[in-house]
Backbone:
């Protein structure tokens, strides 16, 4: 099977609809060799090159007016190595297909984010993560990767092979080359027991350290304009499996989390004054529930209500104080916030531009319904986060630049030096990378 190339300007849009691009040429390569040829041809024609995933980033990290590489044909599992306990997967494989395929083989990733629409390369390149006391982001589970660099050569890297590239390219922002395959650590499939329960804001924040320490995966959502939170604890279980009942699961995951929430957001956008009342009702609509299932069915859930999002990683010990500042800011402002604020954690890792690089982290994520003006809210939150040395998620809305990142990432210079070596002509550059990495 060979890939396709189209020329002429069709518009590419991201999931949230806040980023568009009009590339001169699009290609869907069916192999690493075809992709390398496309990169060489674009360089000869003076075109910049970007690969896209499913567009789940809220930043313009994948936008280009040159060659857009679509990963639709670079999918599937290349190899499962049961001795090393790894899976090698083509970069364009959606996480939902990888998770289902691994489950059929009796395998699972250790940790994952809360959605699985993204491609493996898109998710890892932007630092997608879930929540975990001991287990880190998806990128931290990478054991090797294959990269097409600016001269069209194919570079494989791991802790043993090209370790300097491996240290940076696991979260490479598309700046070092185009990732074509990723080898991830896997383990035998296991069961997770989830316990979701409402809890008061003051109680969650007072007991945050204990809740974090007692659970393998702890997260909570606070509903602005209320003192209410919903908590979720996921821990490994000996079983038996007890998935949510079909009707109860549908009510929680589809009707309340997507259907009613969509209506509530639409109403809130039309009548902002109603938002606090809606928040009080919706924060009370969720009841406690427990269920046990295989990991991807517990970690991930459908997200059909479209939104824009900003998320910052803070030193874990700063998170509760920062969240209280966000609550106080909203209470004294005219803002009307219809979306819950999400708090998750990650252990320190060793990836140069990981938001958890070298420090135990907690994430505070703020969202607004798509089409709602978000600048004033996000700007006010960002001011609080940057005062704590926060690091924004690479795929979510933020206004930071290279000068700021050089201060909050001790290994920032290591990344930019590697970029200078691998892509001196900035073939993989765009406006977003110019802002966050400098020129």
Residues:
């Amino acid at each position: 099977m060979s890939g396709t190339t189209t020329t002429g300007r069709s518009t590419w849009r991201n999931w949230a609809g806040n980023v568009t691009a009009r590339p001169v040429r699009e290609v869907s390569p069916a192999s690493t060799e075809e992709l390398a040829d496309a990169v060489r041809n674009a360089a000869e024609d003076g075109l910049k090159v970007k690969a896209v995933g499913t567009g789940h980033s809220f930043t313009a990290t994948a936008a280009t007016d040159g060659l857009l590489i679509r990963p639709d044909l670079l999918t599937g599992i290349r190899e499962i190595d049961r001795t090393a306990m790894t899976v090698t997967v083509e970069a364009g494989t959606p996480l939902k297909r990888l998770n289902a395929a691994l489950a059929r083989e009796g395998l699972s990733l250790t940790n994952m984010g809360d959605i699985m629409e993204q491609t493996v390369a898109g998710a890892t390149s932007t630092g997608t993560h879930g929540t975990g006391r001991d287990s880190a982001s998806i990128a931290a589970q990478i054991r090797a990767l294959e990269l097409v660099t600016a001269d069209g050569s194919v570079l494989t890297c791991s802790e043993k092979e090209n370790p300097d590239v491996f240290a940076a390219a696991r979260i490479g922002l598309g700046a070092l080359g185009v990732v074509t395959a990723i080898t991830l650590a896997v383990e035998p499939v296991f069961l997770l027991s989830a316990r979701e329960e409402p809890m008061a804001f003051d109680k969650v924040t007072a007991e945050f350290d204990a809740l974090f320490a007692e659970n393998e995966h702890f997260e909570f959502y606070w509903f602005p304009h209320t003192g209410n939170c919903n908590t979720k604890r996921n821990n490994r279980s000996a079983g038996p499996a007890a998935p949510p009942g079909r009707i109860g699961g549908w009510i929680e995951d589809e009707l309340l989390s997507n259907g009613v929430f969509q209506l509530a957001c639409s109403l809130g956008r039309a009548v902002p004054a109603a938002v606090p009342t809606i928040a009080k009702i919706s924060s009370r609509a969720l009841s406690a529930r427990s269920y046990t299932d295989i990991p991807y069915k517990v970690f991930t859930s459908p997200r059909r209500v479209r939104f824009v999002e900003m998320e910052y990683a803070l030193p874990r010990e700063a998170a509760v104080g920062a969240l209280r500042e966000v609550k106080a800011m909203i209470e004294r402002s005219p803002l009307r916030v219809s979306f819950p604020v999400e708090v998750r954690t990650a252990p320190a890792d060793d990836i140069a531009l990981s938001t958890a690089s070298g420090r135990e982290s907690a994430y505070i994520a703020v969202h607004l319904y798509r089409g709602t003006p978000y600048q004033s809210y996000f700007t006010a939150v960002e001011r609080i986060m940057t005062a704590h040395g926060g690091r924004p998620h690479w795929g979510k809305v933020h206004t930071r630049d290279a000068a700021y990142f050089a201060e909050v990432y001790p290994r920032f210079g290591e990344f930019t030096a590697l970029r200078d070596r691998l892509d001196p002509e900035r073939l993989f550059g765009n406006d977003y990378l110019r802002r966050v990495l400098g020129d």
Remarks:
- Residues 348 and 356 are 5 Å apart (CA to CA).
- The chain is about 30% helix and 25% strand.
- Residues 246-270 form the longest helix (25 residues).
- The chain has a mean pLDDT of 92.
